[in-house]
Structures are given as C-alpha cells and as structure tokens.
Amino acid sequence: MTVPVGIPAEPFVPPVYPFDRLTELAELASRLPGGAVDLSMGTPCDPPPPAVVEALSTSGAERSYPPSVGSLELREAAASWMCRRFGVEVPVAAIAACVGSKELVAGVPQWLRLRSPSKDTVLCPELAYPTYEMGALLSGCRVVAVPARRDGRLDLGAVAPEDAERSLCLWVNSPANPAGHLEELAAVASWGRARGIPVFSDECYAEFTWSDDPSSVLQSGLEGVVAVHSLSKRSNLAGLRVGFFAGDPELVSYLAAVRRHAGFIVSGPVQHAAAVALADDGHVALQREIYRERLSYLTEALEGSGVAVRPPEGAFYLWVMAPDSFAERYDRRTEAGDPTAGYRFAWWLAEAGGAIASPGGSYGPAGASHVRLAVVQPMDRLGLVAERLASARPHTWSTG
Hints:
It is a single chain. By secondary structure, the protein is an alpha/beta fold. Helix content is 40%, strand content 13%. It contains 14 helices and 12 strands. Helix 7 links the parallel strand 5 and strand 6. The chain starts with 22 loop residues before the first helix and ends with a helix.
C-alpha cells in the first residue's frame, strides 16, 4: 500500500521530554544538605520589572479578544526595540506576536509545508535546541542536521544540493543554545537567499551577548529571513508566554494569517505588559550583569575542580566537556541507561555538587560528551555548589 507523503507508516509515539529524564539526577542531588541546585533548565529565577507586573492589571484588555497578530502597541514597541538594539528599521506590518517563541518554532514547519507542499525538509544545527527537530517531526518532515565547523558555526557547505532543493527552511540560533557561540548571520542569510530557502533566526538570547555586539539576521535586510524573539529570557517573563517574529513581510503576513485561523493569540493583558517591558532597557542591563557574574563564578568553581571551561560567546549557559580521565574513572551504571560521558559527568555533578545539569545528548548526538549548566540560580545557591565541589573532589574525582 502506498503511504501518502507526510503521513507516517507507524503511529507517532512522542519521545520522552528531555527534562523528564533528569529524575535520577534530581534525586541524587537532593540527598545533599541544602538540597538540589537546579541548573538544568533556562528558567529565570530573578524577578521581572515591577512596572511590567503592574501593567498586567491595568491594560483594560481583559474582556475583548486581543488581535492575534499582536496589538499595535506591542508591535510598535518591538519595532522601536529592534531599532535601538540592532539599528534596523522594521515596518510594523512585518512584525507579529507569538505565544512564546517555542510554539512558533514547533509550528513553522507544518505551516510552511502547507505553503510549499512539494518541499519536505527542515535544516537545523546538529547541536541545537531540540524543538527545531521536533517541529519538523510533528509536521511529517525530514530533518537534515547541518554540521558545525571547528568554531561551532554552521558548515553550510556540507548541505547536499538535493537536501537544499527540498528544504522548507533553515533554522539558526545565535547566541546558540547550548554551546553559546555566535553565528555569522549575514552569511547564513545570503546562503538562504541564493537558494530560495527561508532562514528563521532564533535570537531569544541576543540581549546576553558577551564577545561582540548583539546582532540580528535582519541587519542584512528583510528579504527571505525571519527573526524570532522572546521576552522569557530578556525580561524574566517565561510564565507570560509572549514573543514576536519579524522580517520578510510576505512570510510574516502568511504565518500571522495561518496562526490567526488556528487560534494562536497572546492574551491582551500580556501584550500590554510585553510592550512595557520592551520599552525599558534598564532592567535588561542589570540582568545582563547578573548573568555575567554568575557565569564567571561558576566557571571558576568548575576550573577549581579540574574541569576545563570555555566561556560562552553569548547566552547564560556553560557548555562543558567531560574530562577524558574523569569519564574513564567515573563509570556508573544508571537507571536511565545512558552510557555517554556527558551523562556520567552530570551524575558526578549531581552526586558531588548537588547540581542538576542537562546532559548534552539532549541537544543531539554531537553533544553526548558535554553537559549544559544554566546559571539561573542566585549566587548563594551557586556558592553551595562551589563549596560542595571543592570538598568532594579528593574523594570522588580522583578515585572514581
């Protein structure tokens, strides 16, 4: 029997959600006095701006349906912020709201597939936020992982011409989750335009760029590109689920229309609060310094335990390779059945330091020898991890 394109031959079984695999590590970490210090997920722990919280109750937008594309207030605030931050002029008509960036990332492949039914492939980094791949799978698309060069940036020259021909879109993430490198966005945009492949640039960590000025794919022009932004990290508003996408007017208009039919709408009070947050850069500057301090502190704590750490170019994660000597000695059999060096390293961090890290294999096979540590806990909790690692090393690191 011929199976129609896009319809799987077997029932789809959702994989285990990556963070649900951390139960064993959380239990280990919780045994230590003071409990577990959760550095696995990039969930902000710091308070949002008081003016934003107040704005949630003063919008007067509770009774009527808000515009799916985003209120004029929100889109104008987004346009003004992009002008201040990146020096780009984006028409309000080329900006639309989304219910947090994740729902847009997951939904783009199926909506583009409707627009271009002859294409069936999504290109995304081989080491990446897993929702790029999951969005493709949920839409019945092929996933082609783009390998990285030695500097961590995309090796677009490795994409086969036949895969490029079938591609609905290319995802790029800068600063990148999990490794923290910065992408050459203008070069990526140029590559996509030359092949007629829309480039979607996930820029949710742009405010936390350490080794250079923040950048956006929109600085190379709007044609054929869409930038995706979120207030979850910038303003500690992950619970509000609000973001926006901007760029190619035709692409933004199409996606906004499809999402409107599907009922994707950011609540009215949240749209008003998001506009207030985007208009204020001061709280972001303070948050930037908080993350910078935490990254430096945790780096020193790990290096003091004999772990080499490469500072990220952006974002608030440490992407750390398990030392070879440690991986050989610290060989534990775990209930999760994960034999990778990254998981064994995460086990040690949980047992010795009480820190819950995210094993690198969650971001693709290329990350199997690493862990990701999110510096989203306050300094006193990071200090607890540092103290534990300093006292634990002679007992667990050297002898395994």
